[in-house]
Sequence to fold (600 residues):
Amino acid sequence: MLKRLQLPVVLLLLAGGFWLSPDFKTISAGVAIFLFGMLSLEQGFNAFTGGLLERVLKRATSSHLRSLGFGLVSTAIMQSSSLVSVIAISFLSAGLISLAAGIGIVFGANLGTTTGAWLIAGFGLKVDIARYALPMLVFGIVLLFQPGSKLKGAGSILCGLGFLFLGIHYMKEGFEAFKSTIDLARYSVSGYPGVFLFMLTGIFATVVMQSSHATLVLIITALAAQQITYENALALAIGANIGTTITAMLSALNATAGGKRLAGAHLIFNVVTALISVALIFQLVELVDWSAAKLGIASTDYTLKLAIFHTIFNLGGVLIMLPFITPLVVLLERVIPERVPEVDQPRYLSSASAEFPDTAIEAVKNETQRIFDEALDIIASGMGLLKDASSSKVWLATDFKGKPLLGEGSIDAMYEKHIKSIYSAILVFISDTEFSRKEGHAATLQWLREANVQIVEAIKDTKHLQKNLQRFMVSGNPDIRHGYNTIRQHVAAIIQGILDIRLQEDGVMDMLALDALKLTIDEHRTSMADEVTWLIASRKISAQMGSSLLNDSAYAHDVSMNLVTAAQTLFGAAEPELLSAARAVTLDDSDRGEILDETT
Fold:
């Protein structure tokens, strides 16, 4: 209900402001141009997040301090804590970073926003930045019409900076003109009533504009024009910090539990920081005065003093909250638990993980790895194999009398519970994401789609194979029992081989070792065909038994080959470029056929 009313209320307030004062139009236009600049800047940086930013993020979150540093530096560069928070939620949803690392990034992003206050107060209001804005817009528009995505991204960044500078200029001009008609400083409120009133105003303004940077620029330009008092400006800045969490909260609505936890951490950090700042605001004012004197800033330069205040209360919040990251993780995991549905659901696929190409690919890969592991369990159960997760060993299951134990559970039921929903969601996610049609990412997503199909085909082939296993493993004919036990042993050996190779090199599989497994699979099919021919010719099994054994040997071949091929895609290389190179040197069917011909 409140969300529906928000737009009409804002439009009515703007219309009323336009009717009351022409100067309000100038200020509003400045805010609108500034927000459009923020949007262009984010779009420009998004053009460069197809690998570089993601790889830096993966390497910069190994400790709390490094995560904090990444959040600070990236926000200082991009001048958007909201974008950095969305990136962090996206990476957390895709399973690329931990919740603790995400919290560190958010803390750093809050600290990084202070650079914007310094730039605006120290440069934006002291220089005629409109002179720089127009050339940026001209060059930016020229680049936007170029064919390359990187050039378009650079054009968006230049246009964004140009619009930011132009927006600041119009806000400054509007508040200067406001002086002659309305003195807003007359409506100032002192003491704690003023602190709470203007803090709420700062929250409301930031929620409406969805940008703490825009609110901060508005506060600084109004303060420079003496339209608000210094004390009230401090309260507005505190409110802006709380209001900026709304963007992260909105991004987390469709995120995974991890994304919601990170948004919760962002809210807790900003609220705790704000409460401490409000409680100690007069002591902080004295600290700001002392710091300004030490830095040689004039006592009447309230815009720079506001920048000092903004830095001190954010830095104080980081120093207070940083030691509590681990307890905060525990609290958030308890308050926002993972749902345990009756049917397994996607864990990493969300609108947040679809924001960037690397996170989209990683989310699909993580979900595919989940169903790959579930498929190994289903196939092992269906063929009477035991798979020990702790020791990664696979062996034939028998009872105390030495009879084979085949899985009694329905493969269909296990598929419905553990595979189907995730598999369907992966296919929809790949089809819907815009990166599935972009060069450089489409191939990787296509390979992952193929790996999912291969995994599902392996399960279906196991279902066909299980019928004859259940029939012939209790046959009175020892030769047919031996033939089917050979098939079981072969599949067990292939699964064991995959698990052993997967444990090497930090989970990155040796593609050549997997090719060797494929050769083993082909050799087994040939040897089984020869053995079945001999068994039929020797009258040890009937022709009907022989045809069933040959058909089921083919099913076992397909099960094993699909699993190995899927493993090559999932675990062959971490980077898409390396995976592409690795796939180029793997053996295809004709290559393996030539090798087998040479060895026979």
Q: What stands out?
A: The beta strands are 385-388, 393-396. The CA atoms of residues 536 and 542 lie 6 Å apart.
